[in-house]
Amino acid sequence: QVQLVESGGGLVQPGGSLRLSCVASGITFSMYNMGWYRQAPGKQRELVATIPSGRSTNYADSVKGRFTISRDNAKNTVYLQMNSLKPEDTAVYYCNAVLGRNLDYWGQGTQVTVSS
Asked: pLDDT value at position 114?
């Protein structure tokens, strides 16, 4: 059974930082392209950052220079370090694992709220 379990969300003031973690089980983690997505109320889910199995990274323009995605294959974990948070970063953040065209898994999401 595949599970992606996110943690680390919460309430933070503008300019603050949070670190999200996603622990995967039931997959050969090192083979998967991992990513973080987010969905704000009334909006579509959008890509935040991805880190393929080859370790190169990709970021949405809105988070470049503020967020960093990384992975630890030994711990089956992908991270999202979020700095200089803005109110518009408020959303539910989802972990995603993809391999090829048919293997696509999602976590349950973790809420991030940026507010003073």
From this structure: 98
